[in-house]
């Protein structure tokens, strides 16, 4: 019988340079004497979209060194949300955490995020919008505007303070209740909050500050913004109907025009990578 109670799922694409520091820092934090979660109860699952950049070899070497990490390589699927869903489905733990591979979700917060989940707290959310947290420190103005706009658009769907952070956890029993998940959507945390009908008092919020990416690239594009708006439209349709949907779509159009104007004013951005709202 497995003694794994917690699973950390890391969607990745061409993140080989970050995988070793990510895994070693996660287990380093779990090995601290004050960690509320024991390292031997945790597994790390990297879900890689066929990067072919040495990620498989790096994870295999970490396994030989004694780290409980494994990698799933997908060759026929692509996308952040579907990678998270795949990892959650294959997780052994009853408490599952999603975090980015780029170290902007600092691994030192993993013990607190895992420990915050319980039978009464079905969803853990890393939030940048808590007292004392430096919100998006070092981000240019257009990134702050887009981040705030994306958060505001989601407010009618959930009262969670930061569904855009991408640093979140969910109990497996709750995840398995989800129906009609949009695995092609951009923000799977928001999709789960809505589709699992998670109440406000079932959300545990853990304050955190974004770390600094040291390897690879993180870029924002107009295409990514449109994908997010499409997902919001689907979620609004799922929860609301009629006049409300019409007004929301109108709000979307206004937001798109504002976002495009901002992106154009800053010279445009690469359209091939994922963003961080």
What is the CATH topology classification name of the domain at 6-139 and 160-217?
Spore Coat Polysaccharide Biosynthesis Protein SpsA, Chain A
Name the CATH architecture of the domain at 6-139 and 160-217.
Alpha-Beta Complex
Distance N to C terminus = 40 Å
Spatial strand sequence of the major β-sheet:
3-2-1-4-6-5-7
The count of helical stretches stands at 9
Instruction: Give Rg in angstroms.
Output: 18 Å
Shape: globular
Low-confidence runs: 271-277
Please write the CATH class name of the domain at 6-139 and 160-217. Answer: Alpha Beta
Largest sheet: 7 strands, mixed
| Succession of helices and strands | EHEHEHEHEHEHHEHH
CATH superfamily of the domain at 6-139 and 160-217: Spore Coat Polysaccharide Biosynthesis Protein SpsA, Chain A
Helix content: 25-40%
Mean pLDDT: 84
Number of strand segments? 7
**β-strand amount:** 5-15%
Task: Give the structural class.
Answer: alpha/beta
Subcellular location: Endomembrane system; Endoplasmic reticulum
Keywords: Endoplasmic reticulum, Glycosyltransferase, Magnesium, Manganese, Membrane, Metal-binding, Transferase, Transmembrane, Transmembrane helix
EC number: 2.4.1.83
Cofactor: Mn(2+); Ca(2+); Mg(2+)
Structural topology:
Layout: E1 6-12, H1 16-30, E2 42-48, H2 55-64, E3 69-73, H3 80-90, E4 95-98, H4 110-115, E5 123-127, H5 141-154, E6 168-171, H6 172-175, H7 188-195, E7 203-207, H8 222-239, H9 243-265
Helix pairs in contact: 1-2, 5-9, 8-9
């Amino acid at each position: 019988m497995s003694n794994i109670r917690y699973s950390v799922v890391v969607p990745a694409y061409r993140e080989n340079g970050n995988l070793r520091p990510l895994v070693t820092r996660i287990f380093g934090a779990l090995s601290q004497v004050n960690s509320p979660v024991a390292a031997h109860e945790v597994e790390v699952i990297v879900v890689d979209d066929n990067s072919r950049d040495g990620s498989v070899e790096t994870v295999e070497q970490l396994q030989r060194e004694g780290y409980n990490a494994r990698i799933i390589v997908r060759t026929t699927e692509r996308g952040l949300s579907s990678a998270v869903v795949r990892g959650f489905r294959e997780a052994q733990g009853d408490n599952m955490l999603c975090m980015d591979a780029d170290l902007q979700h600092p691994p030192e917060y993993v013990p607190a995020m895992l420990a915050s989940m319980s039978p009464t707290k079905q969803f853990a959310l890393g939030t940048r919008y808590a007292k004392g947290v430096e919100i998006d420190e070092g981000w240019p103005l257009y990134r702050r505007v887009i981040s705030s706009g994306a958060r505001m658009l989601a407010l009618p769907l959930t009262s969670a303070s930061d569904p855009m952070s991408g640093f979140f956890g969910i109990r497996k029993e709750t995840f398995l209740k989800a129906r009609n998940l949009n695995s092609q959507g951009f923000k799977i945390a928001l999709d789960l909050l809505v589709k699992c009908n998670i109440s406000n008092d079932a959300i545990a919020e853990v304050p955190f500050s974004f770390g600094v990416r040291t390897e690879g690239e993180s870029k924002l594009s107009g295409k990514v913004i449109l994908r997010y708006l499409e997902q919001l439209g689907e979620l609004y349709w799922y929860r609301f109907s009629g006049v409300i949907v019409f007004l929301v779509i109108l709000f979307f159009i206004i937001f798109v025009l504002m976002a495009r104007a901002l992106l154009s004013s800053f010279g445009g951005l690469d359209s091939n990578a994922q963003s961080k709202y």
